[in-house]
Amino acid sequence: MEFIYEPERIYMKNEDEKVVAEVTFPENNGIANINHTYVDGSLRGQGIAGKLVKAAADQIIKDGNGITATCSYAVKWFSKHPEYKLN
């Protein structure tokens, strides 16, 4: 399964077209807020959430926006990845 990229959202679907992993990052005034991370129980423990947050951070930077995080998982992820700066 590969990530599907949309503005302000990155997600994965399973073979039944059900969303099984997702990160959302709405942008406001040049700052994107990673506010939600979800991984279905069937995929937990595989590092999918971390890959989603990294993909979101990379996309936000590519789009020229700053990053903030209110999702508790994302806040923890950024604390372990100082190479990514929060605004």
Q: What count of domains describes the coordinates? A: 1
Distance between the termini: 31 Å
CATH architectural type:
3-Layer(aba) Sandwich
Instruction: Indicate the mean pLDDT.
Output: 96
The shape, in one word, is: globular
What composes the largest sheet?
4 strands, antiparallel
Strand content: 25-35%
Top CATH class? Alpha Beta
Uncertain regions: pLDDT < 50 for 5+ in a row? Answer: none
State the CATH topology: Aminopeptidase
CATH superfamily: Gcn5-related N-acetyltransferase (GNAT)
Number of helices: 2
In short:
By secondary structure, this protein is of the alpha+beta class.
Helix/strand layout:
Blueprint: E1 4-6, E2 9-13, E3 19-24, E4 27-28, E5 31-34, E6 36-39, H1 48-62, E7 66-69, H2 72-79
Parallel strand pairs: 5-7
Antiparallel strand pairs: 1-2, 2-3, 3-6, 4-5
